[in-house]
Specification:
- The protein is 45% helix and 18% strand.
- By secondary structure, it is an alpha/beta fold.
- The strands form two sheets. It has a seven-stranded mixed sheet, with helices on both faces. A two-stranded antiparallel ribbon has the order 1-2.
- Helix 1 packs antiparallel against helix 4 and helix 2 crosses helix 3.
- The radius of gyration is 20 Å and the shape is globular.
- The relative contact order is 0.09.
Length: 211
Protein backbone atom coordinates (compact mmCIF):
# COMPACT_ATOMS: atom_id res chain seq x y z
CA UNK A 1 0.00 0.00 0.00
CA UNK A 2 1.35 3.42 -0.90
CA UNK A 3 1.97 5.88 1.92
CA UNK A 4 -0.48 8.42 0.49
CA UNK A 5 -3.36 6.07 1.37
CA UNK A 6 -2.34 5.75 5.01
CA UNK A 7 -4.64 7.57 7.44
CA UNK A 8 -3.45 10.70 9.19
CA UNK A 9 -4.06 9.03 12.57
CA UNK A 10 -1.61 6.23 11.72
CA UNK A 11 1.04 8.68 10.49
CA UNK A 12 0.71 10.67 13.72
CA UNK A 13 1.37 7.52 15.77
CA UNK A 14 4.55 6.54 13.91
CA UNK A 15 6.86 9.03 15.68
CA UNK A 16 5.63 7.67 19.01
CA UNK A 17 6.47 4.11 17.96
CA UNK A 18 9.87 5.36 16.86
CA UNK A 19 10.50 7.04 20.21
CA UNK A 20 9.52 3.97 22.24
CA UNK A 21 11.59 1.66 20.07
CA UNK A 22 14.58 3.96 20.52
CA UNK A 23 14.15 3.70 24.29
CA UNK A 24 13.98 -0.10 24.03
CA UNK A 25 17.23 -0.15 22.05
CA UNK A 26 18.91 1.94 24.77
CA UNK A 27 17.67 -0.63 27.31
CA UNK A 28 19.21 -3.47 25.31
CA UNK A 29 15.88 -5.03 24.29
CA UNK A 30 16.29 -7.00 21.06
CA UNK A 31 12.74 -8.20 20.41
CA UNK A 32 9.27 -7.39 21.66
CA UNK A 33 5.73 -8.64 21.10
CA UNK A 34 2.81 -6.42 20.19
CA UNK A 35 1.33 -7.20 23.63
CA UNK A 36 4.50 -6.06 25.42
CA UNK A 37 4.71 -2.93 23.28
CA UNK A 38 1.01 -2.33 23.99
CA UNK A 39 1.64 -2.33 27.75
CA UNK A 40 4.41 0.24 27.40
CA UNK A 41 2.63 2.56 24.98
CA UNK A 42 -0.94 2.21 26.31
CA UNK A 43 -2.13 1.41 22.78
CA UNK A 44 -3.98 -1.84 22.10
CA UNK A 45 -1.96 -4.66 20.58
CA UNK A 46 -4.48 -4.94 17.74
CA UNK A 47 -4.02 -1.23 16.96
CA UNK A 48 -0.25 -1.66 16.83
CA UNK A 49 -0.58 -4.63 14.47
CA UNK A 50 -3.06 -2.78 12.26
CA UNK A 51 -0.83 0.30 12.10
CA UNK A 52 2.30 -1.65 11.19
CA UNK A 53 0.45 -3.88 8.71
CA UNK A 54 -0.14 -0.76 6.63
CA UNK A 55 3.58 -0.87 5.85
CA UNK A 56 4.14 -4.61 5.65
CA UNK A 57 3.75 -5.80 9.23
CA UNK A 58 7.42 -6.43 10.19
CA UNK A 59 6.51 -9.00 12.86
CA UNK A 60 6.89 -12.78 12.97
CA UNK A 61 4.35 -15.05 14.62
CA UNK A 62 5.78 -16.52 17.78
CA UNK A 63 8.72 -14.11 17.73
CA UNK A 64 7.27 -10.62 17.74
CA UNK A 65 9.24 -7.67 16.40
CA UNK A 66 12.96 -7.27 16.02
CA UNK A 67 13.32 -3.91 17.80
CA UNK A 68 16.31 -2.55 15.86
CA UNK A 69 14.89 -3.64 12.50
CA UNK A 70 11.49 -2.11 13.24
CA UNK A 71 13.15 1.07 14.49
CA UNK A 72 15.15 1.39 11.25
CA UNK A 73 12.11 0.63 9.09
CA UNK A 74 9.98 3.28 10.80
CA UNK A 75 12.87 5.73 10.39
CA UNK A 76 12.82 4.94 6.67
CA UNK A 77 9.04 5.39 6.47
CA UNK A 78 9.32 8.75 8.25
CA UNK A 79 12.15 9.85 5.97
CA UNK A 80 14.66 9.93 8.82
CA UNK A 81 17.18 7.92 6.84
CA UNK A 82 18.22 11.13 5.09
CA UNK A 83 19.03 14.67 6.16
CA UNK A 84 16.69 17.64 5.91
CA UNK A 85 18.06 21.17 5.67
CA UNK A 86 16.03 23.53 7.84
CA UNK A 87 16.00 27.32 7.97
CA UNK A 88 14.41 29.23 10.83
CA UNK A 89 12.58 32.46 10.13
CA UNK A 90 12.53 34.44 13.37
CA UNK A 91 15.35 34.68 15.90
CA UNK A 92 13.19 35.40 18.94
CA UNK A 93 12.84 33.19 21.99
CA UNK A 94 11.07 30.37 20.14
CA UNK A 95 13.43 30.45 17.19
CA UNK A 96 16.39 30.35 19.55
CA UNK A 97 14.92 27.42 21.46
CA UNK A 98 14.43 25.43 18.26
CA UNK A 99 17.93 26.26 17.04
CA UNK A 100 19.41 25.16 20.35
CA UNK A 101 17.67 21.79 20.54
CA UNK A 102 20.39 19.25 19.79
CA UNK A 103 18.14 16.26 19.12
CA UNK A 104 16.99 17.71 15.79
CA UNK A 105 20.44 17.17 14.30
CA UNK A 106 20.50 13.62 15.66
CA UNK A 107 17.29 12.96 13.72
CA UNK A 108 18.72 14.42 10.53
CA UNK A 109 17.14 17.89 10.74
CA UNK A 110 20.03 20.29 10.20
CA UNK A 111 19.54 23.96 11.06
CA UNK A 112 21.48 25.61 8.23
CA UNK A 113 20.39 29.25 8.55
CA UNK A 114 18.40 31.65 10.73
CA UNK A 115 16.80 34.86 9.45
CA UNK A 116 15.28 37.83 11.25
CA UNK A 117 14.17 41.36 10.35
CA UNK A 118 15.90 42.92 13.36
CA UNK A 119 19.20 44.45 12.15
CA UNK A 120 20.60 44.28 15.68
CA UNK A 121 20.51 40.48 15.49
CA UNK A 122 22.27 40.28 12.13
CA UNK A 123 25.65 38.64 12.51
CA UNK A 124 24.99 37.28 16.00
CA UNK A 125 25.29 33.58 16.67
CA UNK A 126 22.65 31.18 17.96
CA UNK A 127 24.57 28.04 18.77
CA UNK A 128 26.71 27.37 15.72
CA UNK A 129 24.42 29.23 13.31
CA UNK A 130 24.78 32.90 12.40
CA UNK A 131 21.68 35.08 12.10
CA UNK A 132 21.18 36.75 8.74
CA UNK A 133 18.82 39.59 7.83
CA UNK A 134 15.60 38.46 6.15
CA UNK A 135 16.48 40.58 3.13
CA UNK A 136 19.23 38.04 2.37
CA UNK A 137 16.77 35.14 2.06
CA UNK A 138 16.60 35.08 -1.75
CA UNK A 139 20.38 35.26 -2.09
CA UNK A 140 20.80 32.41 0.36
CA UNK A 141 18.23 30.24 -1.43
CA UNK A 142 20.00 30.72 -4.76
CA UNK A 143 23.09 28.98 -3.39
CA UNK A 144 21.62 26.64 -0.75
CA UNK A 145 18.84 24.08 -0.88
CA UNK A 146 16.08 24.47 1.73
CA UNK A 147 13.96 21.44 2.62
CA UNK A 148 11.95 22.88 5.51
CA UNK A 149 11.24 26.39 6.79
CA UNK A 150 10.35 26.85 10.45
CA UNK A 151 8.24 29.99 10.86
CA UNK A 152 8.53 31.49 14.36
CA UNK A 153 7.29 34.94 13.41
CA UNK A 154 4.09 36.94 14.03
CA UNK A 155 1.07 35.91 11.99
CA UNK A 156 1.03 39.25 10.18
CA UNK A 157 4.34 38.31 8.55
CA UNK A 158 3.97 34.54 8.23
CA UNK A 159 1.74 34.41 5.14
CA UNK A 160 3.93 36.83 3.18
CA UNK A 161 7.16 35.07 4.16
CA UNK A 162 5.68 31.65 3.33
CA UNK A 163 4.81 32.98 -0.13
CA UNK A 164 8.38 34.21 -0.59
CA UNK A 165 9.75 30.84 0.46
CA UNK A 166 7.40 28.94 -1.83
CA UNK A 167 8.58 31.02 -4.79
CA UNK A 168 12.13 30.01 -3.81
CA UNK A 169 11.18 26.34 -4.05
CA UNK A 170 10.41 25.55 -0.41
CA UNK A 171 7.55 23.06 -0.14
CA UNK A 172 7.54 22.20 3.59
CA UNK A 173 6.65 24.53 6.46
CA UNK A 174 6.82 24.02 10.22
CA UNK A 175 4.43 26.78 11.18
CA UNK A 176 4.47 28.25 14.71
CA UNK A 177 2.71 31.45 13.65
CA UNK A 178 -0.80 31.76 15.07
CA UNK A 179 -2.43 31.62 11.65
CA UNK A 180 -3.24 29.11 8.94
CA UNK A 181 -1.00 29.28 5.89
CA UNK A 182 -2.75 29.55 2.55
CA UNK A 183 -0.16 27.70 0.50
CA UNK A 184 -0.52 25.66 -2.72
CA UNK A 185 -1.57 22.00 -2.50
CA UNK A 186 1.92 20.75 -3.34
CA UNK A 187 3.15 22.00 0.04
CA UNK A 188 3.40 20.21 3.36
CA UNK A 189 2.42 22.26 6.42
CA UNK A 190 2.64 21.19 10.05
CA UNK A 191 1.13 23.90 12.23
CA UNK A 192 1.95 24.02 15.93
CA UNK A 193 -0.51 26.15 17.90
CA UNK A 194 0.82 26.25 21.46
CA UNK A 195 -2.23 28.05 22.85
CA UNK A 196 -4.53 25.37 21.41
CA UNK A 197 -2.55 22.70 23.26
CA UNK A 198 -3.05 24.63 26.50
CA UNK A 199 -6.76 24.95 25.75
CA UNK A 200 -7.03 21.17 25.38
CA UNK A 201 -5.26 20.75 28.72
CA UNK A 202 -7.65 23.27 30.25
CA UNK A 203 -10.66 21.36 28.91
CA UNK A 204 -9.41 18.01 30.22
CA UNK A 205 -8.53 19.51 33.58
CA UNK A 206 -12.00 21.05 33.85
CA UNK A 207 -13.59 17.73 32.88
CA UNK A 208 -11.64 15.89 35.58
CA UNK A 209 -12.71 18.41 38.20
CA UNK A 210 -16.36 18.03 37.19
CA UNK A 211 -16.33 14.23 37.41
Amino acid sequence: MSDNKISTAVIKRLPRYYRYLGELIEMGVERISSNELSERMKVTASQIRQDLNNFGGFGQQGYGYNVKYLYDEIARILGLDRTHKVVIIGAGNLGRAIAGYGNFAKRGFLITAIFDINPELTGTDIGETKVSHLSELEEYARHNHIDIAALTIPKTQAVMVADRLYKLGVKAFWNFAHTDLNVPQDCVVESVHLSESLMRISYNLKSMEED
